[in-house]
Each structure stands twice: as C-alpha cells, then as structure tokens.
Design goal:
Elements (H helix, E strand, L loop, with lengths): L3 E7 L5 H12 L4 E4 L7 E8 L6 H5 L3 E9 L1 E3 L8 E4 L6 H10 L2 E5 L8 E2 L2 E2 H6 L9 E12 L5 E8 L5 H11 L4 E11 L2 E2 L11 E2 L1 H4 L5 E3 L19 E4 L5 E7 L6 E6 L4
Parallel strand pairs: 3-12, 15-16
Antiparallel strand pairs: 1-3, 1-14, 2-3, 4-11, 4-12, 5-6, 7-10, 8-9, 10-11, 12-13, 16-17, 17-18
Length: 278
C-alpha cells in the first residue's frame, strides 16, 4: 500500500469524490480520501491522502484556505453561484469603494449561515440532499474567520474579482451573496478557484496525469514537529509533553511516527494518530 499525499489541481466538472475514485484507479488501492471538498464547478487545490495518510486528513482540513473568484452583482441564484437558477435580479450600481466597504464588513470573525447546497448535516441529512428535493430548512449560523477579503474591478461594472483567505468551513458563495445584500441588492459567485490549503499551493498541484507523492511527514509540514525514538510512542503511549496543539512526531530519519495532541491533564500529551506499526 502506498502511504502519502498528492496535491491535485481539480478541474471543473469533477466532484471531489470523482477525484478520489480516479486516484484509486491510478494508485491501485482503495484506502484513499480527500480533505476539503470542492464543488464540481470549482477548480484548484484538493488534498488527497493515500493509505495511512488518510488518517491525517482531519488535520489538513483544519488549515486555512485561499480562494479567487468573481462576484456578480445584480443577480441572485438558487445555489449562490453560477450553476443555479436565477431567483432574483436587482438594478445595482456599485463602485470599487462600495464593494471594498462591503468586504470589510465581512472580514474578521463573522457569523455565517451555511448554504442549502452545502454538505452540512441537519437532522441527520446533508443540506444538499434536502435542496435537491426542494426542501429548505433553518440553519444555525456558525462562526468563521475571514483573514483577508480583497476586491478588484473588472471590465464589467457589476463583476468584481475577489481573493479571500479564510478559516476552514467558510463558504465563499455565501460571502458573495452577503456582499450583494450589504449593498442593497444581491449577488452570486462564479469562477471559484482554491489557490491554497495552508502551505499547499497551486505551485505544487498537478493534474491527474502528473501527480507527485508527498510523504506523511510532508503532509504534516504545517504543524510543529519533534523527533523521538520510535519506542517512545510505541502502542500509543501518553507522553509528558506540554503541547498547545497537534504536533507531528518524527523518527530520527524524519519519518512520521504519530501525531500527538494535548491531554485533558495539563503537561501530558495523547496520541491522535499513530502510524508506526499500524
């Protein structure tokens, strides 16, 4: 079995599950998963874990994300993006200063309601499943953080290019819709492209015909690390370590042994994932 991570540049028209299925054929193994779902119309960075590295995907999901796209003012859609049906139109005249001001109100820690086309579960069912049946339900707002929301005018006075750096769980289509509402009308998102997940950027992303394998240790490169003797983490031992968050534990050769997290008892650390011997 191959253990590692590939950084895929997902093309438009493919679901994230399509990419996983294709990778299973490419690498000839079933134990494959992805981190951070991208909509079919979206393109860009998708992290795919193979073998033991699938157990690391939850840490990669928590990394910040960066996106580019275009906000189209004056038109609302059923999906908040260009794939949906038009549900409302508005006569709008916006300037770059207007859009930048709206973006500032959507920067920092904000409350965001997940769209009906998301994978969030309500009552045991995913919202997009309910949406396909024409059902809309109440959704609780969630706190997300938008670190940066840059806007730039285009040749079309109602279309603005955006670049957003945000926490995991932020919906860019919802930011676009909220920006439209903030300016007294509506908007939707198009041409969404994820340019980075943490330090994994388009610069090292590849199409499905040219994937390059990263090691499990490289998959955890955005987290602090320490080197220990393999015997120290054998059988998932609790260690006397004072950690602030997840830490990658490496052997003297640099291979990933485990990932440790803070224990409920101060001064101790517990294994979240143990790869050695698994």
């Amino acid at each position: 079995m191959i253990d590692g991570l590939v950084v895929v540049d997902k093309p438009a028209g493919w679901t994230s599950h399509d990419i996983v299925a294709k990778c299973r054929g490419i690498f000839g193994q079933r134990r494959i998963g992805h981190s951070g779902t991208l909509d079919p119309d979206a393109t860009g960075v998708l992290l795919v874990g193979l073998g033991k590295a699938t157990r690391l995907l939850r840490f990669l999901t928590d990394l910040p994300k960066t996106y580019t796209g275009e906000v189209v003012f004056g038109t609302e859609t059923s999906t908040l993006d260009a794939s949906g049906e038009v549900t409302a139109t508005h006569e709008m005249h916006v300037t770059e200063a207007d859009v930048a001001a709206a973006a500032r109100t959507l920067t920092g820690r904000i409350q965001q309601v997940p769209p009906m086309v998301s994978a969030v579960k309500v009552g045991g069912r995913r919202l997009h499943e309910l949406a396909r049946e024409g059902i809309e339900v109440e959704r609780d707002a969630r706190e997300v953080e938008v670190y940066r929301f840059d806007v730039a005018a285009t040749e079309d006075p109602l279309v603005y290019a955006v670049e957003v750096e945000c926490s995991s769980g932020t919906y860019i289509r919802t930011l676009a819709a909220d920006a439209g509402h903030a300016l007294g009308g509506g908007a939707h998102l198009r041409n969404l492209r994820r340019t980075a997940i943490g330090s994994f950027t388009l610069a090292e992303a590849h199409g499905l015909d040219g994937l390059e394998l990263l090691t499990p240790a490289q998959a955890m490169r955005d987290y602090p690390n320490m080197t220990l003797d393999p015997a120290a983490v054998a059988n998932g031992k609790v260690l006397e370590l004072d950690l602030a968050g997840p830490v990658a534990v490496l052997d003297p050769d640099g291979a990933l042994l485990a990932v440790y997290e803070p224990h409920r008892t101060p001064g101790l650390a517990k294994p979240a994932v143990v790869l050695s011997g698994s």
